[in-house]
Amino acid sequence: MNFYEITCESACLASVPAKTGDDVLHILARQAHSSPAMREYSEADIYKALADREAQGSTGLGGGVAIPHARLDRLENFVFFIVTTRRPVEFAAVDKKKVSVFFALFAPAKQVKEHLRTLAALSNVIARTNVVNELRLAATGPVLYESFLSRTTDEKPARLQEKLKLMVVILYAEEKFYDLLELFLQEGIDGATVIDSVGMGHYISSIPLFSSFVSFMREDRNRSRTLLVPVPEDQVQRVAQGIEEITGDLDKTLGAMIMVLDIPFSRGTMKML
Question: Known catalytic residue: 202?
């Protein structure tokens, strides 16, 4: 994604006096409406699209950053801009820290894959550069605009040249599955393999000695998904922390497990986007 093509300088705002996350969503809606590409959408419609997305789960990534986003019918081109707040506000971020830097992204409803690619590219820029700290200090919208775009070309070598670890996530809690996939995309990890599997309970329920103890178990709780996820070594701790923000403390919560393995040799990629 070429951020030069989609970033709307006139919508960028620095140090807005918002007091709540909802205030920020209203400000983002107003700024989006000011973009020529989105004039046909009312502020109320844009706000609703953002609020509906947040109701599905916060877009707060942690570290004081959030990426509110929405897909809109009839929108022809991507629209992206940045807003910072004078003081950090509560935004239900995964690390429970307040947020002060908001990257707003609006995508055409039908361009789902490109939307995911753009979120992944944005997450990579945030993770790989000092742009967030620069944006917090920016005094004006144009400075936000220039600071961000100056960092979009600050690329590291291709991921295949980075040292990777294999993160194995075994998940029984079905309702957490798509939250994990979204976390990986936000971290710039857009390739993983998902294996449908079953737990030991599925089999020992057939052994007479144990059947009376496990017969009460719901069949769907014997089903699991195993995710094989190549993760850059320097992101392992952050990704693991993000997983626990979704599943709960893995030392105290049943239904999920993380293992991290060395990859002595690899060729190819699991990227599908």
Answer: no
Of 108, 106, 126, give the one whose Cα is nearest residue 50. 106
What residues are paired with 37 via a beta bridge?
Answer: none
Residue-level pLDDT at 69: 96
Cα dihedral across residues 163, 169, 174, 180: positive or negative:
negative
Write the CA distances from 7 to 100, 135, 171, 181, integer angstroms. 19, 15, 38, 26
Q: What is the CATH number of domain 3-151?
A: 3.40.930.10
Q: Which residue has the tokens 């996820």?
A: 229
Catalytic residue among 33, 69, 115, 202: 69
pLDDT over 70 for what percent of the chain? 86
CATH 3.40.930.10 segments of the chain = 3-151
pTM, entire model:
0.61
**C-alpha angle with apex 101: 175 to 16, nearest 5 degrees?**
125
- Residues 177-209: tens digit of each pLDDT: 988 888 888 777 777 889 998 777 656 555 555
Contacts made by residues 41-45, CB under 8 angstroms, sequence distance 24+: 41/72, 41/75
DSSP string, 178-235: HHHHHHHHHTT--B-EEEEEE-THHHHTTSHHHHHHHTTS-GGGGEEEEEEEEEEGGG
Class of domain 159-262 (CATH, top level): alpha beta
Amino acid in the structure at residue 68: P
Two structure tokens written together for 193: 């393999």
